[in-house]
Amino acid sequence: MWSFFHKLASPKHFYRIAGAWIPWLGGITLLLMVVGLYLGLWVAPPDYQQGDSYRIMFVHVPAAWMSLFIYVFMAVCGGIGLIWNMKMADIMAMTSAPIGASFTFLALVTGSIWGKPMWGTWWVWDARLTSELILLFLYLGYIALQNAIEDPRTAARAGAILAIVGSVNIPIIHYSVEWWNTLHQGPTVTRMDKPAIHSSMLWPLLLMALAFQLYFFTLLLMRARVELLYRERRSRWVRELMGNLQPSPLSNNREVI
Amino acid sequence: MTPRQRRMIWVAVIITGVSLATFLALAAFQKNLLYFYTPSQVQAGEAPTGYAFRVGGLVEKGSVKRQPDSLAVRFTLTDGNAKVTVFYDGILPDLFREGQGIIAIGQLQPDGLFKASQVLAKHDENYMPPEVADALKKTGAMPTVDEFKGANR
């Protein structure tokens, strides 16, 4: 078990293992998304209050969940990279940022499109919407910081500190609808006392959430592989992989990729 | 102490420090972060009188009075304890109906009438098919919008 994780931390093995996983993850993502969208858009009944308009929830809610999850993921990877000097953790944190920013943007846009017909406004400065917008700015700031620093180690360290500092925003976003009066409604799925959503609507939502989650990991592995190739471009295994280097017939430690 | 342990402590210090700072800042801004005032707060005089603010509550059943030949409408918002009468001349959101959670933006007139410049609908976190909602209403088990009651937590 542990040796598997140690292997994942080595660039060469990560590249190989990730390459083998991507088609499977991508395939399951596609399957879940098709089934989830079909159940959500065709099978699920209209809502008693919002009619068919609520169906945008099947994209909006998973996107919003992912925006929070990816930030936590980024901060945890940043912390691991900071404390244990792990190169793969740095790459994971760095490559997940644009994906997280995209999900945040998607959550804000779909929320806005949902808000206009239901609430009567595209945007309000309530605690939930504002804190989610701050999350987008945190992602953008993290990406800008990463790009501004040439040395990957320094960039990773600075980014990790920003990600960790920014993670205080995550509980604020989640609890904003409970701590303050907001236009945004309270949590539906994580409410424990009674089912706030009918099961015919909950299942497509959970399927979509799982699909988005796997979509994130698919993209993450793809991006991490590209980043890995770039960073390790001078190493022997990459040059062999790219066919730029004929392995010397004298080298007896040639590794099979 | 190894450098690794020192780095761990640094990360812990950053997290604790930033959390504490955020907590204090949010506690200080608590009032300004309230998106709307409840009718009880308005009645208690907590809402500002000189400038625009938001008031949120449920549209009281039977209180909606429309003026013929215009968009003007008058209704009462309640949170179960107090009431605020709202006057609004404009397009209401689709979800506006009696019993619905509403947030009105406007100014409190000296006579206690709330003149709204914008009315927003606040829907609750319950999603269900219409048949289920009807069945729940019949048995009286319909979840109520309680978000306007204990609003000033």
What is the helix content of chain B?
25-40%
Number of strands of chain B: 6
Counting structural domains of chain B, the number is 2
| Name of the CATH first level of the largest domain in chain B | Mainly Beta
Number of helices of chain B: 3
Outline the structure in words:
The complex is a heterodimer of chains A (257) and B (153). Helices cover 74% and strands 0% of the residues of chain A. Chain A is mainly α and 257 residues long. Chain A has one domain. The longest helix of chain A is centred in the N-terminal third of the chain and has 33 residues. Chain A starts with a helix and ends in a 15-residue tail after the last helix. With 153 residues, chain B is an alpha+beta fold. Chain B has two domains: 33 residues; 101 residues, OB fold (Dihydrolipoamide Acetyltransferase, E2P), CATH 2.40.50.140. Chain B is 27% helix and 26% strand. Chain B is built from three helices and six strands. In chain B, strands 1-3-4-6-5 form a five-stranded mixed beta barrel. Chain B is extended, with a radius of gyration of 22 Å. The N and C termini of chain B lie far apart (45 Å).
